[in-house]
Specification:
Length: 136
């Protein structure tokens, strides 16, 4: 169970909880939970809210995969990953960014450039009135 960074006093690193049982019902797989983005920032520390804890407990008890939050990996998959238990290897939290409208950005840059030229001309005029050199 991956927890947010800065949850424990005196350390800012993200922490994990490893749950190990001798008598496992599900001995052929491992549940990974990424709760690292589910917290509230309070002053200099992050805290798990009751609803964050409830979600962790519910997912743990139900052992259900949830998009961008939890994943159940079978032991063969873990073996293929050289027994690497790094949570991001199993729980994909990647958020795809919205595509950028290059035409709109280009048009905005042209507008801003024209505005900047107008402002530069005004500054040059003020400098001329004051009898000083322009800064550009």
């Amino acid at each position: 169970i991956g927890l947010p960074a800065n949850v424990f006093y005196g350390t800012t690193i993200p922490t994990s909880i490893l749950v190990m049982k001798r008598q496992r019902e599900h001995s052929g797989n491992i549940l990974f939970i990424d709760a690292s983005q589910h917290f509230e920032k309070v002053k200099n520390q992050n805290i798990l809210r009751p609803e964050d804890i409830e979600k962790i407990v519910t997912v743990y008890n139900e052992r259900k995969p949830e998009d961008k939050y939890s994943y159940v990996a079978d032991l063969d998959e873990v073996r293929e990953n050289d027994y690497n238990l790094n949570i991001p290897r199993y729980v994909d939290t990647f958020e795809e960014e919205e595509p950028v409208d290059l035409k709109a950005v280009s048009a905005e840059l042209k507008t801003l450039d024209k505005d900047m030229q107008k402002t530069d001309a005004e500054i040059a005029d003020y400098c001329k009135q004051l009898g000083i050199d322009t800064p550009f």
